[in-house]
Structures are given as structure tokens and as C-alpha cells.
Amino acid sequence: MRFPMAQSDAVEGQEDAPIRDRSALWPGGVIPYEFGNTIGGQRWFKKLITGAMSEWEAKTCIKFRRKTVYDRNYVHIHIGNGCNSDVGMVGGRQTISLGNGCAHHSVVLHELGHVVGFWHEQNRPDRDSYVRIVTKNIIPKLLFAFHKYSTHKINSLGVPYDYKSIMHYSRTAFTKNRRDTIVALDGKTTRFGNNHLSSLDILQANRLYKCPDKANQYPSFPEDFAFTFSRLSSHQCTRLYEPRDGYWRNVYLCVKSGKKPVKIRWSNKGPLSQMACTRVYSNEKHYYLGWNDNYLCVPTKSPYKFRWSLRGPISGYQCLQWRYPRDRRWGSTKYLCAKSDDKPVDGRWSPWSVWSQCTKKCGSGYQHRKRECTNPRPKNGGRSCGTRSYQTRYCNKHRCSDLPKWPEDFTYRYHHYTPSTSTCIRTYERSNYFQWNNYYFCSRPGRQDINMKWSDYGPIRHMRCVLINEPRELRKNGWYDNYLCVPKSSPYRFRWSYSGPINGLSCIQWMAKKGYHGWNDNYLCANRFDGNPVIATTPKPKPIHGGWTTWGVWSKCSKSCATGSRMRLRSCSNPYPQNGGRTCYGGREMRQNCNTQECPRVCGLTFTGNRGTFRSPRDKRGQFSCTWTIQVPTGYRVRLNFGFFSVGASRADCRRGSDYVTIRSGQYSTSLLLKSLCGSGVPGNVYSSGNIMRVTLTSANNIRQAGFSATWLALRIPTVPPTVRQECGGTLTHSKGNITTPNYPNKYPSKQDCIWIIKVPVHKLLKLRFLSFDVERHSQCRYDYVEIRDGSSQRSTLLETFCGNTLPKSITAFANSLWIKFHSDSTQARRGFKAEYYTERRSLGCGGKKWKLYVSEDDSSQYCYLIRYKRATWTSARADCKRKKSDLLSIASSDEQWFVRNELMAETKYYELWMGYNDLRREGQWAWSDRSEVNFNNWGGGDPNNGGRRKNEDCGVLKPDGKWNDFPCNHRFMYICKRKLS
């Protein structure tokens, strides 16, 4: 099954699974529900949810209906934190949360499965015989979702383990390193879960709720029977054969299939032993042509009691006419009649039971009564009674006389279900929902409700609140703004302690999470209270309303230019509010803009010396160019280091964009280009070859990021004998040439970073061949190495990284340029390398800027791809590709799948795309429209399934995650055309 980023799960910590505890099943299989305010008018979301409900209803006897005022147990569906649900009927209001990433049919089906009464498939007691849980790959705090439960908690109802269950996690669920968390032991299954209910899901649900099994119902007589002269499809037919009568050679009695077999047999030689047989005859043919010993037989325990009639239907029986127009002697008054013991019986309600005892003696409790569909029970396909099997009503609505005593009338503990006899509030934290779903703070029944409330978003206004926290709890779990609140008039003055009871106060312990994370020494305390509030005898003092002081002086402006801000304050202390008086109306601070004039732009300087720093201008409005020139003493070179960098958008050739930074070795705009930088991310150090470096920022009013900051430092250039060549990097544009490390064939110097950029015309194919190679060896080439990229920048695709003394293989550039970097550290030095580059004629390419080229690594074949952004049906899309001398996309390998997913679909912002895969010619036999061989597929879980009401999903679609899905061909999607270069 597919999961969103916040994965689906049921609540942790329940002691009994509903599939074992049948009291937690929904009565009659009817589940009342309501939509929360967070869903509101989102009609598409409601349609998604009801669509998932319809799939459960269509394949099981479970029904969903809107909640009424009489329903005390119901499901509240809302947009919450993640995808989660209670398991089975927990009592009272329970929730399904569908947060970000949960708006998918399979996810809603999964959460409804929890409500129906299912745990996850991998929680089964027998799961170790089918899957292995890789705990080292699971996020530690979510290990509980993979616990194996005992048979006391889960009853699988005799259904085998189901890899394709809608309740099964995916193989990478809750992974912390993108590796598998669930592995099948059969060595074959690699996909778990489903997009729809599996056949075993349906079987288990029907067994759980004891749904009528149509396969165990006998066919209805005479509706499911037919007297015919040829065999009928979808029927079981018995030949009615009399060898001496030429008319009765191809006559059949047929029974509709799909129900319990009837096992009818025909005999023309008398009754059959151990069967109930009915003689079939005609007075006109009595003892004529063998019609004296023909019998229709059924098993003795069959519910059908057949009788033969020569003169029309028999009163009180169901009859089927046997009329044979071709046989004139047969006549038209022959009937086969029967009384069936297996007719459909509609269910009827039993009388209502007496009302149960009221759950509370005062303070508004409730009673319930129920009835059952047993008068009689529905059977043989008869209708059920309906949905109103359970009624509730309020009782003992009068107010309780006494307040609860502290602390003896209060408890804090874990409850499986919401306590119905006590006055309780649930303590929860949405950020840690799984572990805080069933802890309740309750007061004793028979006492007044003190109107407690709980908040995990700070204190509640107009109430007296106490902070409930635990410093040892992880902050990401949210326990820093949770409050227990009571009305201000309440006599209870609660205080909280996370380090034991408070001296002088009466306390109750709040034990939670089995004492982990500090929840073993927490106490809620207050003065002892006997339930009788103290009546004040002194007069209430007169309230004093608060008043503002005069405004203070303005603070210093936050900026000297470009609009800063300043503020001034006042306080509500003239006078302070006292004795319940009103606080001051309005704000205590006033803010105002200041120094709104524009700042002069500081753009470009010349630096000298040995070190320094500079940064891009803060004012980035308008089109501009800034140049910084760094000059250090002769015999030194410049090292440039960036502290942060965020300029323009990232692209392969930065200078093709509008915002970028160029770095040159020299003081002129035509000096050797060292690097072109753009995008976000701190680049590596840049070194000049001489004592001057030129840094230029070019902007076209598109810079919206922070810009950059840089530090430069002068480094001494190592002196070498004048006879040794010192070439270290550069841009090469000839069709062929050689490159060597500094000092070659002598040992290269230490601490070198040489970058060569080889560029040739686009119609040339660039190749590089090493003639000798000796670089310090390392298993991961971390000391000295040669790095080669397919392109002209450090951001280009990495081809290879070499070290050691093994001669590397030849390199062929996909682009028309190569970026080569040689790096040496401060330790060992070797002879280095010598390489030659040359060019060959390249094929003409795809033609046109919109076509993308891909070279297959299997056979070096070249293919061209064109993204069509207009939306069209599959047939129209293919016709458009044909006009462009191509066909719809086909995918032959995992490498091509990666290229399509990461290179082509990225340009469409990952919308659905048509491809050429289809089974239009023959259902289930998928083939490519360009007739290429089928060597690879990448179907999503449960696909292809030919789903939908019309069963017409015959064309392949690339989903945003790169998986394939079957879809009706008349939908409209974008598409990709593909052709092979000749």
C-alpha cells in the first residue's frame, strides 16, 4: 500500500483488538459517522471518503451512514495530525484523522479498516513465518508500530497471511535510511499492501461480521431455474435425455451458477438409489417411446421437494413450465413444482429490551436499550431489519448536590475506552498522539461536574490553568504548552510537580507511559477539600479598573536607511486593575517606520594586503553588476572562501541565467575564467593562478535570496626550478591536445587544485584517454585524486574519480565539454598523469531545442524525447506523436526509467503523463505502441487492476512518483513522444 510522508497507523496501547473482543464490533455492521468542521465544504474530500466507504459496502455487509442524534457511538472524521484511527468501536465519539498526505483512496480505505476492526497485517501472531522486520532501519520512536501481538489480541479467523492486504505496511514504511523495513521470507514478494481491498480482506471482514455467504445459499425456485433447448452460460445444466424419443436429445434443465450447487440428476432407467426422485411423464406418451421410467432426482437432504403436474401449476407450490413446441404430443400443461426450504426470509426486529441502569445518579447520565434482528433472522438472502438496533436517552439530569472531594474523588489512569460513569477529560498531546490517546483525569460519579478542560495549545482564556509538563520528555513531543484548566470560581487550586509530592498539599500521582521519559514521579496537588465550598462572610471589595500611563520616548531607529522601525511603550499601572477590575483596552506598545530613505549602494571595491572579507550589496533592486578586485603581493596567489552563498537559480551553465557570480584569475573581464556560480549551497575554495583575482556579481533584478559573503587569503606560490613546467588548469578549446599534472614526469607538488575545462564544438564527440597514471592510492580516493565531470562546471554530472597507479579507462563526454580536477594533499606525492583528448564526428542529434537526447548504456542507441504540455486523450496524444515521426513513450530499462523520472518529469512539475503501454488489443496483454520489446515494468502496488465501474483502464500512465498505473484512455493528460535516431 502507498503511504504519505506521515504514515498511517492505529493507536498504540490498546489491550484487546476488536477482531478478538467481539463486544467492540459495530452492532449490525452499521458505522455512524460525521464530518468535522475542518473538512467543511471540501466536496472533493468528502467524495474521496465516501468512495472508500462504498468499496467496503460493495464487498462486505458493513454499512456506513450519517450520525443521528440517537447515536452515542460514532466516528468523527476530520483533518488532523497525520493519518490515524481508533481500532473497532471504542465507545462514544472516536476519530479518524486525515492530515497532510492522507488524501488518497488507499489511505482512507486503510483507516476505515481500523474502524471496522483490523490491526495491521504485520502485527499478526504468525507474521514471523512470512516476513522479517528489519528493526535497524526503523525510526526508533515508531518501533511500536511493528510489534507482534499475541493470539489473545488478534484473531485472524483462519485467513492466511496476506501480503496484498490493504492493512499491510509498505516495505519501506517508517524507514530512517530509505532501506527496507519489511522483507518477505518467500524471496519473491517485494511489494506489500494494495490500493484496494484484497480478496482476503473481504473474506476476513465477512467472517468478522458474519456476513451472509451467497455461496452457501441455494438457488431460488423457479427464478434461478430454466427449461431450455441449449446449454446456458453461467448456468449448471442437466441434460433431459430419452434415447428412444428423437425430440428429447438436446433438452436441458439449467440452474444459475454462483450459489450452492443443487446436484440434479436425470435417469431414463428408473429412480436412482439414495436420491429423492420425481417421475416425469405425459399421458399422451405413457409407455410410448420409453416414457415410462424417466425420473428427475436430487439428494435426499436437498431443500427441494419436487412434484410433477400434468394439468398446470399446483396450488401452494412454486412451478416451472416445461413446454416443448416441437413435440406436439407433449402439450403445454406440464409443470415441475416444488416447495423449497431455502427461500429468502426477511429479518424482523425482536422487542426492545428494557432500559439499562442510568450511568450516573445525577449530573445527566444516559441509558441504552437494544433489539436484535432475530424475529426471525434474515436468511437465504433475505433483507436485514435496518440500522436502528441501539437507542440511548439522557437520564438523571438534575444537578449533583456535592462537589467531588480532593484527593479521594479524583483519579488519573489509562482507560481502554472513554469512561461513561465518571466525569472525565482526556489528556493528550497532538504531536505525540499515539502514546497519549487514552489517559483520563476523572472525578467520582455522583458528584458535581467541575467543568475541567484540557489544552495542548496554551492556557484557556477566562479560566484558572496550571502547566502540566515534564522536562525529561523530548521537546519535539510537544509537552511544553499543555494546561489543565478549571473555572476561576472553582474552589480547587491545583499545583503541578514533576519531582514528587509537594509538602503540605494533598496529591495524586500522574503515572503515564509506564514511567518512561520521566513520567514516574509526577503529581497534581491541591489543598484538601471535603466537597463543601467555603461561604465568604466579608463583603466583596469594589473593583478598580486599570489605566494607561503616558507614552514613553521613542527608541532608536533600527536602521539608518531603507526603512527601519522604532517603538515606544506604556503600562497599565495608572492604576493597576484590582479586585476583578477591567484591564486596560488597547496595546502596550506603538511602532512606527523611520529613516525611509534609500541606502547608497556599496558595490565593488579593490582589495590589497594578505586577507580580507566582502559581501554582496544588501540593496538588490534594479539591474546592476558589481566587481571586486583582489591583488596580493607578487609570488602569492589568492584563495577565496565563501561563508554563505545563495544567488539565483541553480543551472548547469550559470552564465545563461540572469543572476550569477564569475571568478577570474586576473584583473580583466577577459582573464581566465575559474568558476561560474549560481544557486544555493556553499561552493568549495577557489584559487587564482597569479596574484590577482576578479569576482563579479551580475543581477537582473531577480535576486531574492541572501546573496553571498566571502573571505580571501594570500598564499605563497611554491618555487620550482625554472625548467619545470607549472601549468595547472585552464580552458582548452582545440580539437585535440594533452594535459599533465604540474612537474610531470617528476613528482607533482602538494596542496594543488588544478581544473581543466575542455570545450569543443557541439557537433564533435569529445573523448579523453590516459597515457600514464600514478596518483596516491586510497580505497575511496580521499587524498590525491582526479575528478572528471560531464560538462563545464563543478555542478555537472560526475563521471569518475580516479587514484592509484592503474591506468583508467577512456572517457566519452555526453556533452561537448569535460571538467577535470586534480587535487593533491600535503602528504605523499607521485609522478601524476598524462592524458590526451581528441574528437570524433557526432551524430546530428535530435534537432530542435525542445527534444532531449538519451544514450542507452546497454547498446549505445540514441533516443530523442519531446515533452508535450498540452492535455489530450491517449489516442489523440499518439496521433500527435505520429505526426512528429515518433511514438508515445516506451521504457526499456531501469536506467531509462530513471532518466524519464528525474530529467523529463522534473520539467513537468511531476504531473501524470501518458506513455505507450496499453492492452487495447487484448485485455491483460500489455504491449508498447511502438512495438518495442517488453523487458521492464514499474507498476505501482495493486496495478494493473482494470478498476473503475466500466473496467476500461487500458492505457498506461506515469504517476508523479514514477510508478505506472492503468487508466481509462479517454482521460486527458500531458504526454512524451519518443523516437530512435537513425
Average per-residue pLDDT, rounded, comes to: 83
- Summing up helix and strand content along with how strands pair, one would put the structural category as mainly beta
Which oligomeric state applies? single chain
Shape, principal axes of CA atoms: flat
Instruction: Please report the total strand number as a whole number.
Output: 57
Radius of gyration: 41 Å
CATH first level of the largest domain: Alpha Beta
Tell me the number of helical segments per DSSP (H or I, 4 or more residues long). Answer: 5
* Proportion of residues in β-strands: 25-35%
The largest sheet is: 8 strands, mixed
Q: Helical percent range?
A: under 10%
Q: What's the CATH architecture of the largest domain? A: 3-Layer(aba) Sandwich
The CATH topology of the largest domain turns out to be Collagenase (Catalytic Domain)
| First-last Cα distance | 42 Å
Structure description:
It is a single chain. It is built from five helices and 57 strands. The protein is mainly β. The protein folds into seven domains: 27-209, 3-Layer(aba) Sandwich (Collagenase (Catalytic Domain)), CATH 3.40.390.10; 225-338, no CATH class; 358-379 and 386-399, no CATH class; 400-532, no CATH class; 606-716, Sandwich (Jelly Rolls); 729-841, Jelly Rolls; 851-981, Mannose-Binding Protein A, Chain A (Roll), CATH 3.10.100. Strands 50, 51, 52, 53, 54, 55, 56 and 57 form an eight-stranded mixed β-sheet that branches. A six-stranded mixed β-sheet has the order 1-5-6-4-2-3, with helices on one face. A hairpin with a 6-residue loop joins strand 45 and strand 46 (797-802). The two termini are 42 Å apart.
